[in-house]
TrEMBL record:
Name of protein: DEAD/DEAH box helicase domain-containing protein
InterPro entries: Hel308_SKI2-like, P-loop_NTPase
Keyword Protease: no
PANTHER family: ACTIVATING SIGNAL COINTEGRATOR 1 COMPLEX SUBUNIT 3 (PTHR47961:SF13), DNA POLYMERASE THETA, PUTATIVE (AFU_ORTHOLOGUE AFUA_1G05260)-RELATED (PTHR47961)
GO molecular function: ATP binding; helicase activity; hydrolase activity
Keyword match Lipoprotein: no
Region ranges (Disordered): 22-46
Stored SUPFAM superfamilies: P-loop containing nucleoside triphosphate hydrolases
UniProt entry keywords in alphabetical sequence: ATP-binding, Helicase, Hydrolase, Nucleotide-binding
Source species: Ditylum brightwellii
């Protein structure tokens, strides 16, 4: 008698929980999102569904125990719980799906139940990826009055994937390098346009943020021009070659301005 009352009470709780979670007694066609790529659920909805599943497990276990003890002879006894009419088949199915009841695992399932379970599985070859979330290791937090400062360390990059940085000593003569005193290599932007700026007479349009190194690109073109004119090799200081630009050959400047 006690087991019968316990089963009815558990069934009532399961029915109420399913209704609160917006779940049907048994979704015989599989989850609604089986063919969807994305689903959006509130945390409260997930918690309600989780509670409903647990309640279904307890109800299925209580029903099995009551039937085994003889307290419930047929399913008509369960109509006493009212309009919800405890669905024993639904609870048994939920017990198999969610892993509860007297029969757990494939051994306790019929051929039809195994086929139903297989039908609910994802297509062969389906891959799921769960991206870990959170701040990377080495993150530092500093708390102040009314604020929090989070310092995230720079990622460790693969050196083989970094942009090429041209070494000036190997790319130009010692005389040309004097125009870039204090600089041993070009940055990635300068290295990208080096061939066009230093080895061709092509027009260049350089768009880069402030302090990105555009002046050094312009200097590459100046040094290349002086080198082609045969001026830079006769000067100890490449900057002194500016005075020769525009000369008409007799030492006079053909331009009105230096």
């Amino acid at each position: 008698r006690f087991l019968r009352e316990e089963a009815i009470e558990a069934a009532s709780i399961a029915a109420v929980a399913r209704a609160a979670a917006g779940m049907s007694p048994v979704d015989r066609n599989g989850p609604a999102s089986a063919t969807a790529t994305h689903t959006v659920s509130r945390r409260s909805d997930k918690e309600a569904q989780k509670f409903a599943k647990k309640a279904a497990k307890r109800a299925a276990a209580a029903l099995a125990a009551a039937k085994e003890a003889g307290d419930i002879l047929d399913d008509e006894d369960l109509e006493l719980i009212g309009p919800s009419k405890f669905d024993s088949d639904a609870l048994q199915t939920e017990g198999y799906v969610f892993g509860s009841g007297g029969n757990i695992g494939l051994e306790g399932m019929t051929k039809e139940e195994i086929q139903e379970m297989q039908r609910r599985l994802a297509p062969e070859g389906t891959k799921q990826y769960y991206e870990p979330k959170g701040l990377p290791p080495g993150t530092e937090r500093e708390y102040g009055p009314g604020y929090e400062m989070v310092t995230i360390p720079a990622p460790i990059r693969d050196q083989s994937k970094l942009h090429l940085r041209i070494d000036l000593d190997s790319a130009m003569s010692a005389q040309c390098c004097k125009a870039f005193a204090g600089t041993s290599s070009l940055n990635p932007m300068q290295s990208e346009v080096f061939d066009a700026a230093f080895h061709t007479q092509e027009n260049l349009l350089i768009c880069a943020p402030t302090n990105a190194g555009k002046k050094n690109v312009a200097m590459l073109t100046v040094v290349a021009h002086l080198r082609e004119k045969g001026i830079i090799k006769n000067e100890k200081d490449p900057y002194a070659a500016y005075s020769h630009i525009g000369d008409d050959g007799g030492g006079r400047n053909s331009s009105s301005s230096q």
